[in-house]
Each structure stands twice: as structure tokens, then as C-alpha cells.
Design goal:
Blueprint (H helix, E strand, L loop, with lengths): L16 E6 L2 E6 L2 E8 L17 E2 L2 E2 L23
Antiparallel strand pairs: 1-2, 2-3, 4-5
Length: 86
């Protein structure tokens, strides 16, 4: 899915995401702006590991793009009450 707007902060600043999954629907709020709303993710598992990714990599032992220098901090997972699921 493609975000509806660009809300990233400049390189070197922290971004804040709030990602909400209800059933097979996901909403993403980035830095206070809703960038993905109620998008359907068919086949998403109700339970399992959560993966974090970045786009970039190394070539000849050197980082080749700024996204490769990504860091994560303060990650919280909160289960939604059953009554809020579709």
C-alpha cells in the first residue's frame, strides 16, 4: 500500500509511528498524520512475530544509503480489547 502523504522527519530526527491492526485492517499514523487508513492486508496472521525492517544495505562493508543507518527505540505493543475488533 502507498501512503497518502509524506510525513517523515528529516534525516537525523526520530519519527513516531502509531500502527493499529484490527483483524486484516491496518492504520498508520506517522508523526501525527494518518498516512495509511483502514487498509486491508489479506492473510495477516492474528498472532506471531512482529518484524521491523529498513531499506538499504552494505556494499563492500560500507553502508550504501541513509536508510541503512536506521535505529528503533521505545517499541510498545498493546492488545486491543476484543470488542473493538471487526
Amino acid at each position: 500500500m502507498t501512503p497518502r502523504t509524506q510525513a517523515d522527519k528529516p534525516v537525523g530526527e526520530w519519527n513516531r509511528y502509531v500502527i493499529t491492526c484490527r483483524g486484516d485492517r491496518v492504520t498508520v499514523v506517522l508523526n501525527g498524520k494518518t498516512v495509511i487508513e483502514n487498509a486491508q492486508l489479506p492473510g495477516i496472521a492474528a498472532k506471531g512475530p512482529i518484524g521491523l525492517q529498513h531499506h538499504g544495505g552494505k556494499r563492500n562493508g560500507q553502508w550504501i544509503s541513509p536508510p541503512s543507518l536506521l535505529q528503533f527505540k521505545n517499541i510498545y505493543v498493546k492488545e486491543l480489547p476484543q470488542s473493538r475488533l471487526p
